[in-house]
Design a protein that fits this description.
The protein is mostly beta strands and 154 residues long. The protein has one domain (15-145): Pnp Oxidase, Chain A (Roll), CATH 2.30.110. It has 3 helices and 12 strands. The strands form 3 sheets. Strands 3-2-6-9-10-5-4 form a 7-stranded antiparallel sheet. The longest helix has 8 residues, at 3-10.
Length: 154
């Protein structure tokens, strides 16, 4: 099977949209990701999958911490900024949770300390021990078939 066939098949899985952030030397770095999952309740662990070519990879390796920001339906612009699709000069005022940068207004903010790294294919899986969370009651931003959707879509 070719790459496009595989990508098309994976696009049939509706996911939430997250922005993964970390801070190195006072500068916040981030990327949009949908490869995120809960791993364990005891202890509380999550995983994010980062491409070996992503600029964020070495930032997380250096800082050993990250936050996962689950985007609300009104935060598509954040997703576009952190995926590199919105090139305008977009200014973001970050909030902080447990000393880690988070996106204000996110549906959920999850802060983590890296406990393990696993290389699988062309990605690194970071296992993060959850150090704090903040949740708001909003509708999620959904990604399906290469497009953004919300639960309000008809």
């Amino acid at each position: 099977m070719d790459d496009n066939q595989f990508r098309n098949a994976m696009g049939k899985f509706a996911t939430g949209v997250t922005v993964v952030l970390t801070e190195v030397n006072g500068a916040v770095h981030g990327m949009t990701a949908n490869a995120f999952m809960s791993v364990s309740l005891h202890p509380k662990l999550v995983t994010v999958s980062i491409s070996e070519n992503a600029r964020l990879l070495n930032k997380i390796k250096s800082s050993k911490v990250f936050s996962v920001n689950i985007l609300a339906s009104n935060q598509e612009e954040y997703s576009r900024v952190f995926s590199g699709k919105l090139k305008d000069d977009f200014r973001i005022e970050f909030d902080y949770l447990d000393g880690k940068p988070v996106l204000p207004g996110s549906l959920a903010q999850i802060t983590c300390e890296v406990t393990q790294e696993h290389t699988e294919g062309d990605h690194i899986l970071f296992i993060g021990k959850v150090t704090d969370t903040h949740v708001e009651e909003k509708k999620p931003l959904i990604f399906y078939g290469g497009k953004y959707h919300s639960l309000d879509d008809k």
